[in-house]
Hints:
heterodimer, A: alpha/beta, five-stranded parallel sheet, 11 strands, about 35% helix, B: alpha+beta, three-stranded antiparallel sheet, 11 helices, 12 strands
Amino acid sequence: MEWKQKLIDRKRELTKSGTKPNLIWLATNSCSAHIISFSNTAHPTLREVLERHYNFLFESFIMAAEGERATRFWYSPEVEKGDFILVMEGTVATAYGGRTNLLGQVRGKNVTALQVVKRLGAKARHVVAAGTCAAYGGPYAAWPNPTGSLPLSKVLNRPVVNVPGCPINPGWLLETLEHLRLGKALKLDQMGRPLFLFVKTVHSKCERLPFYFSNQFAENPGDKGCMYNLGCKGPSTRADCPERQWIDEASGWPVGVNTPCIGCTAPEFPDGMAPFFKHTTDLYTIPGKVNLDTLTAFSAVFTLTALGAHLAGQYISGRFKPPRFSGKLGRLPTTKKTLKQIKKRLR
Amino acid sequence: MVKAQNEGTIFRGFEAILEGRDARDAPYLTQRICGICSSAHGLAACRALEDAAGLKLTGSAMRTRNLILGLDFMQNHIRQFYMLMLWDWVAPPPQNPFQGGYTRDFRLSPSLTARFREHHWTGVDHARLAHEALTLIGGKIPHNHGIIPGGVSLVPSGEIARELGRRIKKLAAFVEEIYLPDALRLQEAYPDYMQIGRGRPNYLSHGLYTEADNSEYSPAGAVLEGLAAGSALSEIRESVASSWYRGKGGHPLQGKTIPDPDRKGAYSWVKAPRYRGFACQGGPLARQVIKGEHPPGSNSTLERVTARAREALETSRLLRRWLAEINPEEPGYQPFKLPDSGSGVGVTEAMRGPLSHWVTLKGGCIENYQIITPSAWNFSPADEQGTPGPVENALLGTPVEKIDQPVEIGRVIRSFDPCYACTAHVLDPARGIRKTVKILA
């Protein structure tokens, strides 16, 4: 709880001063979990965020405008000025020319998410990808990616701040945004994540690390103990879930309720993290799924076939001879008869 | 309004993504379909797998599942009323992002408007409170970890149960003292909306909250043209006559989802599910009609809204009972083995209507997965016979006073609690006869 208090204090400190920048929140190929999760913020509350911190120009979940009253904003002079932070949740669908994800109509014409993202993304002062989908593709870009979904950074030709998570913890996004609002330097790692959030692995701060070191592993979900044998992706996932926990005033997190971490903040989620309850990852390829089982079966069949083919080739070419006694090896005399024969020969 | 067409504008191909995956991943993955009703998807997916394996759950597992689902229901109903549909009825405060909406037909007095604006923020806080309670047993939310195939991962006891109880008590007080009275105040101020937005008297429910004797607290069933009819999952058919998909449709176990955005006559990414050929509506009102608590004939806009508030009140009482009934000694999870091949169906009520997951297994992996969401029921397009979907039907005859500010349409639509409620904001009713609603496919 000490850590939690420190977090709250840090946020208070951050939110004391600063201006009220414009913010546009765009949801494209998304499940809306990120705005819902963001509205679960308790320190500060959503009310404080909307009234004091950010001027939400557009947010389709909570805004009051509808129809062209809402959509024509994308082509307004306010957007032209480019004085806003763009937060985006969801992937950008590109299959069928983006027609699988229409955002609405402007002047009677359908507008795809692809068009709006490109337009707003080019103008924005900062671009923040909220959630694994917008940051790296996530579940909607999972194999076989039926909608041709792309993460934000592949659609826009500019740096993007990635705040992954499925969904994001409200604190992750809020603290990142506060850095931008207050003009503080935001160090990013190679994957575009804020370093101050995604530097430690879940495993390194896990409350069940003692179980790991003392070999007390859970056999089933629901057991107390280390979740490693249940396919816990904590060792390869960077997030501060064990310390921050979900959500502000309550304390729970996946391992805390006796289930493995499924690595939802990882860039390779979900394909590189599935199956969730195993450690051997499935690879999705054109001929089908490849995993450790199929690889073992394949190599066994390959070895046996190769061996068989080699033997058959030897036999057909006549080089194959069954092993037999060539007479060159010495033999121990065993019977009296053979002893006599030898003596005879020696004479 | 003389003609209405719901245009579902998102296709994400979740069913194709699930094919070939480890079946145990389905509950966690399918939650990613919807951020606001994630636990219902997790529950339906678990039930589909348990159906395939023939597993029976322990009593405390069932009650903990009820707790998780019930808390998500509370969150959804409160959020839906205060965050997603309030500004249709109450003049929004002069502040972004509540500006730029319609400005006519707000009938509440200034003092009442001020009170509703204050309640809006109280509602946001209590939606968070429900989610906070859920994280205690679900790990995180949206997309909780608590519901797993085989039961639940944690049975609340001790400190967790106390923390849960404290929050449930606060939620119950909020619903009783603020939410339900607010819904009734809307009824008083807008009496004509007790007539506007009526659809055909066809309702469907898959049953909500499992009781100790394995019965459903809110029973499964159907009411067709006002008459009670049993519920049989084999009678469900999906039509793709007006949807951008290839093929002919059929029973969901044999269903395929192959996109075809150039299909002639199609106007939606949503399929059209039908029960015995009827387009049925789902949601709190439908559940109450099937339970016999509401006359089937009347299903107007504000009746749907108050039914949701009543259900929230009932759920808050049930939550307390389940928490008291849980036996912490009983295990929540039962180890089980999935069959290598077979099929299963998992049904539940989501917040906004009937939800069903249909799975076929092969070699321990998913061979085929089909999902019928509540929004597919409510917002379905027309089928082969040209029967319109429930919302399309409810919109027929809705009087639109001013064509440039058609507030009436949004009110009717959002009373159905669209799954992707946010995007019902982005619609184009300007020409009066055609209407675009965006919902989750």
